[in-house]
Amino acid sequence: MGTSFRPVAAALLLCLLLPLAFAAPNDGLVKVGIKKRKFDQNNRVAAQLGSKEGDLLNASVRKYRFRGNLGDSEDADIVILKNYMDAQYFGEIGIGTPAQTFTVIFDTGSSNLWVPSSKCYFSLACYLHPRYKSSKSSTYKENGKSAAIQYGTGAISGFFSEDNVKIGDIVVKDVQFIEASKEPGITFLVAKFDGILGLGFQEISVGNAVPVWYDMIEQGLINEPVFSFWLNRNADEEQGGELVFGGVDPNHFVGEHTYVPVTEKGYWQFDMGDVLVGGKSTGFCSGGCAAIADSGTSLLAGPTSIITEVNHAIGATGVVSQECKLVVSQYGETIIRMLLAKDEPLKICSQIGLCEFDGSRGVSMGIRSVVNESIEKAVHATSEAMCSACELAVVWMQNTLKQNETQEQILNYANDLCDRIPSPMGESVVECAGLSTMPNVSFTIGGKVFELTPEEYVLKVGEGPAAQCISGFTALDVPPPRGPLWILGDVFMGRYHTVFDYGNLRIGFAEAA
Predict the structure, then answer these.
(1) Which residue of 122, 130, 134, 413 is 20 to 30 Å from 231, comparing CA positions?
(2) pLDDT at residue number 367
(3) Which of 270, 329, 314 is nearest to 438 (CA)?
(4) How buried is residue 344: exposed, middle or buried, by Cβ count under 10 Å (0-12/13-18/19+)?
């Protein structure tokens, strides 16, 4: 989950789903089926389900290792997943003996397992979902250590317990999990799932609890330390996808996977190259960007400057930034002159007095005031907004200058982009009738271009005249050295079958079938 990501509640961000690889009935694969439910306007708030971006940056990033030939794995398990409006993917697990059934999101962006507890008395959400009853399980072991997890749009707290967990056809013994005794707010009240099962690494696990899939490997329940998933983006079909532990299902991808190494510990993070819009380079990640494959995020999250350009290209409308327009009108010509004079782009905004930093840090320090605290806060907020707007304008103008545009064209383009900045809630709307005219958006991974069509990166809400189309791109700004950072969520993973190869510390992508 993330750290300082902006809440992207309306952006349909917390959807986890891990596809599983298929194999013959006796191949030993652990398969978890993914199911889905149709996305409708009335239940749209359910998609806001605790978008985890807000916590993603607070946790450290870790590396992983996998071994062996994924296709030859003999011991694996497959979980059938459900798909809720292409925004929530979830499957069923059992906890305890006899097993108590829960619907969970399989999330590669977090590492803990939690479900509502029978000891949750004062949160309405707990009463609308199944609750774990330790007294009903013969394999329950008391732990009692307190725990709390804060997501982007929701939080849970409770205590650790230990019990057996059934995933697919296997039973994992003595799993550490959190009994949630508090689930405040509306986030989990309207969620279509009961809890979350994290597939990230122990380094980002709350309480340093051992992740369930670590236990699978340690207990010899799967031969290959690999899991993979296929997400079905057709919300009208009953099966939402599959999550496979121990291998891959060749029926759900075509060609070969392109593998890239995991670069940081914690999340499934790797290096990504240029981002293309309509086949043209945006220039922003040509020198490389970090990216995370996250089944717990519905959309594609990236730097505001590039997301704004993408939204401009697809005609998405966000919230108009008056600060942005003010910077373009008052400082646009100055910024262009300084870029042409080969001034260092990172220092331009500080040189013209809109930011207070030396170019070595990715965030503004703000402007201090000697008056009372409320005025100081207002001044600080205004200065931050102007600084951010200036930084965006510099990136846009720098990219446009490379195309030999005139000064007037550059200023008009930047001014137009101001209208495309994503809203504070992250959501941007596009015209459903305009999908055929929108450009493809591509990501360069491992030297290969992975393309998304408008039909794949736009989420449709509702049917008929009342239908609304949501851009699959939302803003996320992470300063160097950790950023720029992209989160490739279900919009991307739905198009590309994804393998998480722990033994070889790598992630693989192939065309989904």
Answers:
(1) 130
(2) 27
(3) 314
(4) exposed
Q: Among 274, 294, 477, 501, which one carries the catalytic annotation?
A: 294
Active-site residue identified among 55, 75, 86, 107: 107
Please give the mean pLDDT across all residues of the chain. Answer: 78
Q: Which of 64, 169, 50, 180 is nearest to 113 (CA)?
A: 180
Structural element, H or E, at residue 338: helix 322-340
**N-term to C-term CA, the chain:** 28
CA distances for 118 relative to 94, 133, 134, 135, 182, angstroms: 15, 5, 8, 10, 11
CA atoms within 13 A on the CB side of 24: 6
Confidence (pLDDT) at 2: 38
209 secondary structure, DSSP code: P
pLDDT tens for residues 19-52? 333 333 336 688 888 865 544 443 433 333 333 3
Residue listed under structure tokens 């989950």: 1
Can you tell me the mean pLDDT for 431-451?
A: 94
* SS3 of the chain: helix, strand, coil, percent, to 5: 25, 30, 40
Distance CA 499, CA 510 (A): 9
pLDDT in tens, 125-183: 999 999 999 999 999 999 999 999 986 556 899 999 999 999 999 999 999 999 999 99
> Could you give the CA distance from residue 456 to residue 463 in angstroms, rounded to a whole number?
17
What CA–CA distance (Å, rounded) separates 11 from 86? Answer: 12
Phi, psi (degrees; rounded to nearest 5) at 171 = -120, 120
Residue 294 among the catalytic residues: yes
Q: What is the pTM of this model?
A: 0.72
Q: How far apart are CA 272 and CA 293, in angstroms?
A: 11
Those residues whose C-beta lies under 8 Å from the C-beta of residue 17, and which sit 6 or more positions away, are 34, 81, 83, 88, 89, 90, 105, 106, 229, 231, 240, 241, 243, 295, 490, 493
Long-range contacts of 320-324 (CB under 8 A, 24+ apart): 320/418, 320/419, 320/421, 321/385, 321/389, 321/418, 321/421, 323/382, 323/385, 323/386, 323/388, 323/389, 324/389, 324/392, 324/393, 324/417, 324/418, 324/421
Could you give the CA distance from residue 106 to residue 16 in angstroms, rounded to a whole number?
Answer: 5
The 8 Å CB, 24+ separation contacts for 99-103 are 99/164, 99/166, 100/130, 100/132, 100/133, 100/136, 100/137, 101/130, 102/129, 102/130, 102/132, 102/194, 102/195, 103/192, 103/193, 103/194, 103/195
Dump pLDDT digits (tens) for 267-279. 899 999 999 999 9
Both tokens assigned to 486: 């992209």
